[in-house]
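Thread: Newbie trying to understand structure tokens

Hi all, I'm a second-year student working on a class project, and my supervisor (Dr. K.) asked me to get a predicted structure for one chain before our next meeting. I've only ever worked with sequences, so writing a 3D structure as a token string is new to me. If someone could post the tokens and maybe explain what I'm looking at, I'd be very grateful. Here's the chain:
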Amino acid sequence: MISAITGELRRVEEDRVHIQLGPLLCELLVPAMDLLLLQAGVGQEITFHTVFYLEGDSSGGNIEPRLVGFLRPEDKAFFQLFITVKGIGPKKALRALALPVGEIAQAIESKDARFLVELPQIGKRMAELIVAELAGKVAGFASPIVDGKPTVGGRMRVEEDAIATLMALGERRIDAEHLLDRAKQNNATLKTTDAMVREMLRLRTARG
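---
Reply by user tm_fold:
Sure, no problem. This is what the structure looks like when written as tokens:
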């Protein structure tokens, strides 16, 4: 079983990335929420936490192996729960995961079907089914809400996601946190994970 891979991020496409592993170029499907962050990491060495599955109809002999990659191990674990819901296959799940897992899990635990309907590929009936099947099972993934905004370990969720992205690019957590603090000092207007990651990468390049 391939549980994680590390290699150079060569290309980012609409729903997948290409990673150079020595002489091999591997294709990984990725969740929608990570695409902007990954575009900022092209050319960098990056670690993906992976899930392997087979796609196609075995009766017709048309089976293709697929590898799904996540920047954070908790996102991988949530995905594995998410696809247990009837009617949510791996590709549908990846498109639906357009927002941070912590926010989606919080909506499920709060039984907020209206929030879930806003996700790609999720209609009203599917949202209600997700709540019925997963409420009570995803509390460990949910982001606590402080002043109306999701947080993780005292930091805003967008900040924690930025730290996790730099860690996937090989930074130690303490160094990623230092880069984030410097990025915020340099530019107090940074509000999104993508903007934070871009500034952190700029600072890291200048540091090198």
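A couple of things are worth pointing out once you decode it. The chain has a mean pLDDT of 87. The chain has two domains: 4-141, 149-207. Feel free to ask follow-ups in this thread.
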